[in-house]
Amino acid sequence: MGISVVFGFISALLFGLAAPFSKMLLEGLTPFQLAGLLYTGAAIGLLPKVISEKGFSKVLRMNRDNKKLLAGAVLLGGVAGPVVLLFGLKIAEASSVSMWLNLELVFTALLGHFVFRDYLGKLGWLGILGAVFAAGLLSWEGGMVGIRAGLLVATACLFWGLDNHFTALIDEISPTTNTFFKGLFAGPINLLIGFTAGSFVGEPSVIGYSLILGIFSYGVSIALYISSAQGIGATRAQVIFASAPFFGVGGSLLFLNESLSFLQYGAAGLLIIALIPLLIDNHLHSHFHETTTHQHLHGHGEGHHNHSHDNIYLPGWIPHVHEHKHENTEHRHPHLPDIHHRHRHKDSSVDEG
Questions:
Q1: 319 and 289 in a common domain
Q2: C-alpha–C-alpha distance, residues 290 and 15, integer Å
Q3: Rounded to whole angstroms, how far apart are CA atoms 6 and 12?
Q4: I need a labelling partner for 294 at 20 to 30 A (CA). Which of 76, 88, 144, 270 fits?
Q5: What whole-number distance in Å separates Cα of residue 195 and Cα of residue 274?
Q6: CA–CA gap between residue 34 and residue 36 (Å, rounded)
């Protein structure tokens, strides 16, 4: 679990800084053009790793369910989400947009509870209500422009909430390959729309900065997030990722000379308080694991990965990715809705932590 938490925070840092830098880049690009460059950069940056792990052939061999999940992640998370966000960023301050991005946590948690078998207890619901109220305060402060921008960001967060669960469930390719294919399709599609809908006036330096930002804030960041989500569940990973807006606010103050109002300080404090119940929400019940073969980031010694390695130089406690098999087992232990625990259960059998 520890490495998944670390990956989640690094992912949040890289993505959070994308908001203020994207705000600057939008001065010379349209939202579609910038979204296309960001995801193209992500694909370029991850290509060497994908080639080394034979990602292209693995995608072709995926089963139908995983291919559908990947297609949904590309369409919603790669094509639609970034464009909608950038339209909101174009009419609102980057600091407010950064804090609105915590709605991604809300949608991820709600979708997880109602659709994707992601347990959410009373504490989790309390945290979600706090995050929604904080987002509402920010929208109200901005008037009609703030409401329009808030709705655009909320729509992007809904798309990313779906994307988060789709990517957390894909278990036949690595997070790097997953993210690469999102960029490979989303980048050119948005660039094509951007070229068709408006003239391309970006300076070469702006294009270069956009690609570099895409490599780190979309490529590396998303790959790390997927690793985190597979290890601790999409909702819990999103709790950690909820720190991204605060990195974005810091970047907005530092690079854009924006200032925070009293209401923004209050909303930020409320968001921090709302994260606490979600962080400590957990559950315990008896559950059954069917035989399965998949690959994801994992270590050994936590009760689910007891296989041995041919490579004697790879200690089991070091987090690593490879294809492995799980046998049938039934047990009872405190757990998160990670890639192994996407099961339904009767409420009467659940002990909340």
A1: yes
A2: 36
A3: 10
A4: 76
A5: 41
A6: 5
Scanning the structure block, which residue is given the tokens 């509402």? 136
Cβ-contact 285, 343 below 8 angstroms:
no
- Do 294 and 245 form a contact (C-beta atoms < 8 A)? no
Q: Do 160 and 107 form a contact (C-beta atoms < 8 A)?
A: yes
Statement: residue 306 has pLDDT above 70: no
How far apart are the C-alpha atoms of 101 and 113, rounded to whole Å?
A: 20
Residue 336 has pLDDT above 60, yes or no: no
Q: Residue 74, Cα to own-chain centre: how many angstroms? A: 13
- Contact predicate 30/258, CB 8 Å: no
* Average pLDDT across the chain, whole number: 80
What is the DSSP-derived secondary structure letter of residue 165? H
SS3 per-residue string spanning 17-49: CHHHHHHHHCCCCCHHHHHHHHHHHHHHHHHHH
Q: 77-107, pLDDT tens digit by residue?
A: 999 999 999 998 888 888 778 777 878 878 8
| Residue that finishes a domain, picked among 283, 298, 325 | 283
Angle at which helix 244-255 crosses helix 262-280, to 10 degrees, equals 160
Kind plus residue range of the DSSP H or E element containing 325: strand 320-326
Query: What are the residues whose beta carbons fall under 8 Å from the beta carbon of 51, sequence distance 6 or more?
Result: none
Expressed as residue numbers, the domain containing 234 is 2-283
DSSP output for 271-282: HHHHHHHHHH--
Under 8 Å between Cβ of 311 and 263: no
Helices (H), 73-142: 81-91, 94-100, 103-114, 122-141
> Do 151 and 223 reside in the same domain of the chain?
yes
